[in-house]
Amino acid sequence: MQSIQNQENLPRSWYPVCLSRELKKNGLMPIKLFGNDWILFRESHGTIGMLYRFCPHMGTDLANGCIIENCVRCPLHHWKFDKNGIRAESGFGDSPQQPVKTQYLPVQEKYGIIFAYWGRNPEFQPPTLPDSLNLLYSNPITMQLNNSYVAVILNAFDVQHLTAVHNRIIDGEITFNNESIYHLGIKFSLRVSRKKLLDSMLIMSGMGSSEIQYNCWGGNYLIVQNPTTKFCAVMILQPSERVDESKLFLVVATSIASKNFINAFITKQKLRIMRFFAVSFLQQDVRILKNMRPVLGLSSPEKDIGAIKFWDYFQKLPRFSISQDPHV
Hints:
Blueprint: E1 14-19, E2 27-33, E3 36-42, E4 48-52, E5 66-68, E6 71-73, E7 80-81, E8 87-89, E9 104-105, E10 107-110, E11 113-117, E12 135-137, E13 141-145, H1 149-157, H2 161-166, E14 168-177, E15 183-192, H3 197-204, E16 209-217, E17 221-226, E18 231-239, E19 246-255, H4 261-289, H5 305-316
Antiparallel strand pairs: 1-11, 2-3, 3-4, 4-9, 5-6, 6-7, 7-8, 10-11, 12-19, 13-19, 14-15, 15-16, 16-17, 17-18, 18-19
Helix pairs in contact: 1-5
């Protein structure tokens, strides 16, 4: 199988590593990501880090080590490394005193998900929804996909597929904005086409039309907002070494009037329904996108404007390569 986006091709961005609940305190977790082997760790006070899995001294597997004083300690000679890959303390069989570093990635935790930044110094923080919306979030869920992660985000900006696949009609002008080289936003209006029972129910409930806004960061991190239904979602894609595989992390949110017991209970039920429909909506695309090899071929400048904008944006995203990293 042809290798996908190897480490030379991946854009600098925040990529999901795992769910927060999967990494316990004082826990070590071996991870295969970005074409390399890593060790993810969390010390007793909650600090997390992500280091190259094998010790630079003799190649010992750090997954067999332990966490001491916020550092991972190698089981063989007790060298200790902090979350920035710096040897915090030497051990037995020490080499001459000199600075020693190993590969590391910056990590953060949001939405119940642990993220790693593919790069050395993050050019942007993991995007979040505005605090002013007073949101209640669902627990994150994951979906294993049989397609490239690029196909999923390209599909989101291909707004014409909403008519072909989801019975939604684009109304009015489609607008775009860029906050930085890492960002692409799109805004458009949708009208429900009365073809299915659910469509009719949406129309009768006053949700037959709405404004949609997508904001993509780093080519893999998508925030979706629908002010009409007060639906928000955060979709983050984890790439794979295989061209036909990726993993989707999804968090759904909606506004809550106040966080008293009754409102919180009602909003949680609403959130469950929204998450169900979000997953059902996504699954329609996932089936169609199976084995897709993203390419911008015979495109129409008018009808494929969303896909064209995304493709141009994605190609220009800054890349990062461990092999060319001067910090180690």
